[in-house]
Amino acid sequence: MQPTLAVIDIDILSGQDELAREGLLENLACCTGEFITPLWVNWLRERADLRVVCLVHDLTRFDDFLLDVIRTVPGVRGTAAQLAFSGIPAPQPPCWSSRNLARTARCTTR
Questions:
Q1: Residue 96 falls inside a structural domain
Q2: Cα 5 to Cα 7: distance, rounded to the nearest angstrom
Q3: Position 94 in a domain
Q4: Is residue 109 predicted with pLDDT exceeding 80?
Q5: Number of domains within the chain
Q6: Biggest alpha carbon distance in the chain?
Q7: Is residue 20 within 8 Å of 65, Cβ to Cβ?
Q8: ∠ CA 37-40-43 to the nearest 5 degrees?
Q9: pTM given for the model
Q10: Is residue 68 assigned to a domain?
Q11: Which of 14, 88, 104, 107 holds its CA 20 to 30 A away from the CA of 97?
Q12: Where are the beta strands (DSSP E) in 1-110?
């Protein structure tokens, strides 16, 4: 099974950004294993929040990772995760063709 890319935005309490960053880096160093591979951590300075990008090899353990590794860091107020199951977009049907005019409003990617 291919790994899934996860982008995790971490909301930090005001004034605790440095403490949270240090704690997160420490936790991530300890958790690298067979089910997740941390790729990088961004510090979003304008909001004083953090973003973690990682590869998830076992989705059944991803919730545990969020709770045990990220949410336990002092200063973390909340998280939001986005998963990318496939990096290849499916071809879109031609919404503009005369045959699809009735379906134009419903055209989406597969």
A1: no
A2: 7
A3: no
A4: no
A5: 1
A6: 59
A7: no
A8: 145
A9: 0.73
A10: yes
A11: 88
A12: 4-12, 36-44, 49-56, 76-84
